[in-house]
């Protein structure tokens, strides 16, 4: 079930949300370091992480699921956000170069259908970046943050989900090693937590950040049929029947 967009916006306005945006945003930027001339789509609630791309990319869009709600983005320019159904995106095939999915796959009941729709709108060679809660992380066990809601994932689970939707995972990282504590004095050490967790490869980060490519051609295993030798039945040659005696 999707959280309300008002709750998401409120979280990112709090000190813990500001730290979350900074640390996850740094990891996202590290993956998509050059989007000049490309089209970028954020889906779910990705607007806290799209701002760094807006002036650089050719086009930036923010799609928010109908069950979540939508907010205006950006606040001081013509809006680039739209309310959509996450399995029916209002885009033509192959028109997006980069997709950033945040607060999406763990919330939707149709994760594979969502990914197949993302696959449809991605251009050949396009990239998808998924930010999903870590099943082993502390953040997934408390509900004072958006990553504590919905379905958390292990590496194996998100890999299987992506491959089932014709994506190939190509890069992994984690973010948010600091516990979700709403104390300003504690949050001042967020960068130190992040450095220690990354250097020691600790398993309790809040989120997995996985980059995947669109698999254009899916290999289909061929089943060879065993050749069967046909046994030829002997063919009888026609012969003349014996002459009947006159009677």
Please tell me about this protein's structure:
- This protein has a 7-stranded mixed beta sheet, sandwiched between helices.
- About 5% of the residues have low confidence.
- It is globular and about 45 Å long.
- It is of the alpha/beta class and 247 residues long.
- The longest helix is centred in the N-terminal third of the chain and has 17 residues.
- α3 links the parallel β1 and β2.
- The termini are far apart.
- 27% of the residues lie in helices and 21% in strands.
Overall helicity: 25-40%
Strand content: 15-25%
According to DSSP, the number of beta strands is 7
* Radius of gyration, in angstroms, nearest whole number: 28 Å
The rounded distance between the terminal residues' Cα atoms is: 100 Å
Q: What's the overall geometry? A: globular
| Overall pLDDT metric | 89
Regarding quaternary structure, what we see is single chain
Biggest β-sheet strands, sense, barrel: 7 strands, mixed
Give me the strand/helix succession: HHEHEEEHEHEHHE
Determine the structural class based on helices, strands and strand pairing.
Answer: alpha/beta
- If strands are numbered along the chain, what order do they take across the biggest sheet? 3-2-1-4-5-7-6
Which spans have pLDDT < 50 for at least 5 consecutive residues?
220-232
Number of discrete helical segments: 7
State the gist of this model.
The chain has 247 residues and is α/β, with parallel strands linked by helices. It has seven helices and seven strands; from the N terminus they run ααβαβββαβαβααβ. A seven-stranded mixed beta sheet has the order 3-2-1-4-5-7-6, sandwiched between helices.
């Amino acid at each position: 079930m999707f959280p309300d967009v008002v709750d998401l916006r409120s979280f990112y306005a709090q000190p813990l949300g500001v730290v979350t945006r900074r640390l996850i945003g740094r990891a996202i930027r590290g993956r998509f370091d050059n989007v000049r001339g490309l089209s970028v789509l954020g889906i779910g609630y990705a607007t806290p992480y799209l701002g760094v791309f807006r002036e650089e990319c050719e086009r930036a869009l923010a799609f928010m699921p109908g069950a979540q709600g939508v907010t205006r983005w950006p606040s001081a320019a013509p809006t680039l956000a739209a309310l959509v159904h996450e399995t029916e995106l209002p885009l033509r095939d192959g028109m997006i170069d980069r997709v950033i999915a945040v607060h999406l796959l763990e919330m939707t009941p149709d994760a594979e259908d969502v990914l197949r729709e993302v696959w449809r709108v991605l251009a050949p060679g396009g990239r998808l970046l998924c930010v999903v809660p870590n099943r082993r992380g502390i953040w997934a066990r408390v509900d004072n943050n958006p990553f504590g809601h919905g379905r958390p994932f292990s590496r194996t689970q998100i890999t299987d989900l992506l491959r089932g939707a014709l994506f190939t995972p190509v890069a992994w990282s984690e973010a948010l090693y600091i516990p979700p504590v709403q104390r300003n004095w504690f949050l001042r050490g967020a960068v130190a937590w992040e450095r220690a967790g990354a250097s020691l490869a600790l398993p309790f980060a809040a989120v997995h950040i996985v980059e995947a490519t669109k698999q254009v051609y899916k290999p289909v295993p061929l089943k060879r049929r065993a050749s069967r030798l046909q046994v030829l039945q002997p063919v009888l040659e026609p012969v003349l029947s014996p002459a009947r005696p006159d009677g």
